[in-house]
Amino acid sequence: MTACITNIQRFSLNDGPGIRTTIFFQGCNMDCTWCHNPETLPHAPVLMFYENKCIGCGKCFTVCPVGAHKIVDGKHIVDRKLCTSCGKCAESCFSGALVMSSREYTVEEVMKEIRQDKLYYDLSGGGVTFSGGEATLHMAFVEALADACHDEGISVAIETNMAIPFYHIENTLRKMDLIMCDLKHVTASVHKEFTGIENHMIFNNVGRASLLGIPMIVRTPLIPGVTDSFENLHTIAEFLSKLKNILYYELLNFNPLGSSKRIAIDAQDPFEACRPFSNKHLEELKARLEDTKISIKVS
Ligand code: SF4
Ligand code: SF4
Q1: pTM value?
Q2: Residue finishing a domain among 61, 76, 98
Q3: Which of 48, 89, 177, 288 could form a disulfide with 60 if both were Cys (CB 3.0 to 4.6 A apart)?
């Protein structure tokens, strides 16, 4: 069994408690316009071109079987309409300017990476987090990895968008020691406009997951002008205050780090001009939400 994985990030501190290894899976069933891992959205590996690393050796022009590398107005571009994502140019590019977003791994290959940091997980209360993309699109692989981790005494968590019918993901969720998910917007039409899908199933699934007896962390990414209104956050906090097993509600500051990756895959960045919120603003938001009685964290 294999799965396409974009990155295995060791010593991760932002994807759950303690020191973690985060596994980023290729492919997502949502299309959030602010995603800071946009290369994980397509369901197959995609070619990424970091122009600033190109040394102009010309190798990619000679190996590409479809002539997708072109000079247009004196600028090196990848013609996305021609590119078949075969990966030949990335294999030949020694400067790191061309890379494929993911490659296939077996469970044992991933476990080899994971077990290197067992000591750090044990000392810090950390473990492994399955992320993406949407990890539950690879549920058989994720379940096999979760079982392998548990066999070696390693705790596992999942970051999921909860946008898949509950009966499909329930078994996968039940194997987790921690579930992390987002509630982005309470208004279905706004949710659809910025993520590609409405929010009813997501809210419903969060409610059902909270009955599994597994600790949960629910987050809202603070996207300027979209999710960051007090009314939106307060309605979500009130919804969560009625559920069981929620460790805390986390407000995630705007993360502009996806910008360079968007450029590398020739994707638009509608939030290019946005910047993270100040700590003062985050603390003020947190204070205003305290009447909902849910534990709130800002990060
Ligand atoms: S192979 Fe890499 S370094 Fe050489 S021209 Fe192509 S992108 Fe630039
Ligand atoms: S991935 Fe393949 S098709 Fe696409 S530009 Fe590179 S060599 Fe050409």
Answers
A1: 0.94
A2: 98
A3: 89
